[in-house]
Each structure stands twice: as C-alpha cells, then as structure tokens.
Specification:
The chain is mostly helical and 152 residues long. Helix content is 70%, strand content 11%.
C-alpha cells in the first residue's frame, strides 16, 4: 500500500515531535538528578561538561558545535564553569587566537560523580529496545539532518 504525501508529512511531524519530546524528558531527568546530587550545575553547563568528560581540552568552537550553541553562549557557560572552579582556559598551542577548555581536578571529580547518572539514563533509555531499532532510528535522524542541511 503506497504512502500518501499527507501521510508521509504526518510521519515527519510525529518524528520531529518525538525527538523534541525525548530531549525535553532527558533535560528534565538530568536537571532533577543533578539537583538531587546537590550539584551546582545547570543543564546547559552539564552538557558542556559532558563533552569535556569525553574529551578534555577541546576548543570553544568544538564545544559550541557539539552543544548546538553560538560562540557567545558557549563563552558564557565556560565563564560560569570557570568561576565554579570546574574548568580553565588554556592557550591552544596550534592557534594562539583559540582557547582550549581543560577540566580542573574538581571538574574531573564531578565527572566521576555524575558518570553513574549518565549510565543510569542510558540504561533507562535503552530499556528492552532491540539494537536494530536504534540503527534504523539513527539512520533516519541523520537522513533528516542531511536533508535540512542541504537546503541551508
């Protein structure tokens, strides 16, 4: 049975809504959990820290790209993380105009404290969903992203 143009449009709308809804629920979950742990971080700061826990010493541009934020928003978040003693800015040896963001010992320690929270979240999200469904979902989202990028 062929899918009509209207049916396809409805499926696209449902997919975009489902992705947005998932992000909102993840945000709420993380905000609740970091508050319970009495961690002085916002969700936005947590996102930046999450990527630094994965790869310490990234430059600000890379963090902006990964967190889907403009440079000024990223700078503001890094300023706040720096005031909290979680990160420091270092000169990039390859480009003096660029800064690398490095974790302090307190920032690394916080990562060790929050890593179980992330593993718990991933276990909840994964639940009993089969691997193939993740592969198909990832491919779908990447294709949709490619489609929007080709029009901009």
């Amino acid at each position: 049975m062929p899918v009509t143009k209207d049916k396809k449009m409805d499926l696209v709308i449902q997919t975009v809504r489902a992705v947005s809804e998932l992000r909102n629920h993840i945000r709420r979950y993380i905000q609740t959990r970091i508050k319970e742990l009495q961690t002085n971080l916002t969700f936005e700061m947590f996102e930046v820290m999450f990527y630094l826990w994965q790869k310490d010493g990234m430059n600000q541009q890379e963090l902006s790209r990964l967190t889907f934020r403009d440079k000024s928003s990223t700078t503001y978040l890094i300023d706040n993380l720096s005031r909290r003693g979680l990160v420091i800015r270092l000169e990039d040896p390859e480009d003096r105009r660029s800064k690398r963001i490095a974790l302090t010992p307190a920032g690394s320690s916080l990562g060790e404290q929050l890593r179980p929270l992330m593993m718990e979240l991933y276990a909840i999200l994964g639940g009993d969903i089969e691997t193939l469904r993740f592969c198909n979902g990832i491919a779908l989202i990447k294709d949709m992203t490619k489609n929007i990028l080709t029009t901009c």
